[in-house]
Amino acid sequence: MRNFMLAVCLILLNVVPLAACDVSLFSLVAGNSPNKAFASSLTGLVTFAKAVGNNSQNKETMPGHMQKFMVKWIEFSNTYLQNPPEWAKKDPDWKSKFDGLTSLIGSIRKNLSSLEPDQQKAHHEIQAFTRRLTRLYDMLPMDALARLRLDISMHIDHVWTAWLEQNRQKLGESTENFSAVSRIFLKELDEATASAAVSIVHRAEELHKMAAQENVFTGKSFEFMLNMAENEFAKFNEAQKQSAAATEK
């Protein structure tokens, strides 16, 4: 039975898309920010990054989407690197965050435009780019739930980094942190909303258990579970965004 389930997981890994770019996360967090233009620009960047990912295997459309993505980033960087929002002026890592994001875009372009494209690495980098954009909100005053959403996104990114580096110690620490923050997040939600977030906590706990296994870097089971966890989080945020929009009407 165990071998059968593993086989199913491996099959699903080939048909389930990579974790969705969490556009809704930015909208939910941006509710704490008076700078709507900045929030809109961030959401636009995620949308352009998502378009690159969706067209990454299309040699005709990918270059155009990549160009739009790069132009959008240059415009964003020119606008906000030297003139950040008021709350971001206190961020000592503001420039280094921009440098890191710029480096990621360069690597994404290289991995998709080379004679032998590395699709998988490029997709991981696109996901990392969208997650790390949230770090630009680090110094923004926000409510507890918004802060926990950003923390979860950050911890997911740390888990991915440890997995891709095949660093056993980091994987154990990052999955433990992801699991702990997910449980705190669940406790902060009302009963009706919490029921929709239980699966996120479950997957985070499973990832921590899997990280302790000797063969964690063998096969695709851990990667499959991590993709599922990130997709669950993105779907949860999308539902929350839609609910908030309906309430405002």
Can you describe what's shown?
The longest helix has 28 residues, at 221-248. The protein has 2 domains: 22-142, Four Helix Bundle (Hemerythrin (Met), subunit A) (Up-down Bundle), CATH 1.20.120; 143-249, Up-down Bundle (Four Helix Bundle (Hemerythrin (Met), subunit A)), CATH 1.20.120. 75% of the residues lie in helices and 0% in strands. The relative contact order is 0.13. It is mostly helical and 249 residues long. The model is unreliable at 1-19 (pLDDT under 50).
Topology:
Blueprint (H helix, E strand, L loop, with lengths): L1 H14 L7 H8 L5 H19 L7 H19 L13 H20 L5 H15 L10 H22 L2 H21 L2 H21 L9 H28 L1
Helix pairs in contact: 2-3, 2-10, 3-4, 3-6, 4-5, 5-6, 6-7, 7-8, 8-9, 9-10
